[in-house]
Amino acid sequence: MLRSFVCAVDVGTGSARAGILDSRGNLLGRAERPIAMHQPKPDHAEHDSENIWSAVCAAVRAAREKANVAAADIVGVSFDATCSLVVRDRQGGQLGVSVTGEKRWDTIVWLDHRAIAEADECTRSGHAVLDYIGGVMSPEMETPKLMWLKRNLPGTWNEAGYLFDLADFLTWKATGSLARSQCTLTAKWTYLAHEETGWRHDFFELAGLGDLFEHGNLPEKASPVGADIGPLTANAAADLGLTEKCRVGAGVIDAYAGALGVLGGFAGDETDISRHLALIAGTSSCVMAMSPDPQPFAGVWGPYYGAALPKLWLSEGGQSATGALLDHIIRWHGAGGEPDAAMHAKIAKRVAELRAAEGDALAARLHVLPDFHGNRSPLADPHAVGVVSGLTLDSSFDSLCKLYWRTAVGIALGVRHVLEALNENGYLIDTLHVTGGHTKNPLLMELYADATGCTVIEPLADEAVLLGTGMVAATAAGLYPDLKAACVAMQQGGKTRASNPAAGARFDRDYRVFLEMHRQRRALDEIG
Known about the structure:
Shape: globular
Largest sheet: 7 strands, mixed
Structural class: alpha+beta
Strand order of the largest sheet: 13-14-12-11-17-18-19
Distance between the termini: 64 Å
């Protein structure tokens, strides 16, 4: 095992990253390459899957070079990706999903909301599969996107021969195998992994997708996370700069990789794991909790069986726009500009100065309901909108900093809202494990502890998502007997931040306002 390494690939919304890890989970080298996104009209977002594959290959080659590891010593690779929908023709070539007709745009991005009407139809059906997605179909899931595609681009639908979640597409590119991950199918395709027959064909008939299996090349059974799908093909090995001896593991959705990276250390303790919540926070935020028994309830996706760790049920909540919302606030405000790392840091520094001068009184009448891209959890309302209360005519840089601060407060209160829903429905969560881009934002990290009252753990692993995918790759390569063993052996631990009890009363007040804003928004919608 000493000379055995694995490669983890993470495809996010804007880039593909690759990391080379040793068998103990240490990251030896990483590289990142951008991927293109096409937005031809509001609520439409598309990728080019060949562009993604090229970025993946370039990132893997660069990461291996940085790690100074021989290709022959990399024994496993796995992919995580956003839950985007890739469409291919019967020969495996690209098929356009864009209203522009361009074939290269063959992937509907996870955040694309073009299928919101179709999602509402699925919800109204009342079908039993909804019991395992919190009772409400999201336009970010694959069924409504497929419905939209069939209705609006019938030519594409008729030519389609392969339909993939993005992580499964990458596994197919790497191996030629049509296997699909239990993670992707269970979380996004209404596959019921806990049942003997996972697919409910009557649901697809109801959704007008009775011919889905003629166009999707979908397997009857999903492959457990970390299953050995097979070796790299000669072409894929050449593209990636690896060898045909490298085994490929059944991958995961990106947020689920993050959950493995931060919660994997508890894989051996199925009772204790339900005290811990993973918060994978970047452009959007996902929260994930696992338990030995299903905890179904409205407004949180799941429970999903074996979608991350074997034999455990996973409940997923989240916020559709968090990092993206802070970026939007910067662009939106007259004193803002480009929301790069330097601008975020400049604002955080000024917020700290203003708080030192004004304390709890800083922008105390300014409140932000952060549902600018709908409410994923716990209301499961993709039609929800954001609300800002307390604006004045001040357009200075300081007013931007105050709005940014109070938006960050709103984002943290949104996590508290999800957390309370989980704990009211069977969980006993008191510890929050945060990973992703938000760990670089000092305001958010402070708020996640103080606004929720939880202990916050920041992983020592710089790249918890890559670590989680590395655990999957190590399992497929046979470095460990199963995924649980790989997770326990490769986990990296974290540093602890306790909540500040003195801040409790202030955030309790803010939370009362937050809940009242939800109520008033609904009242306004009812009038309208």
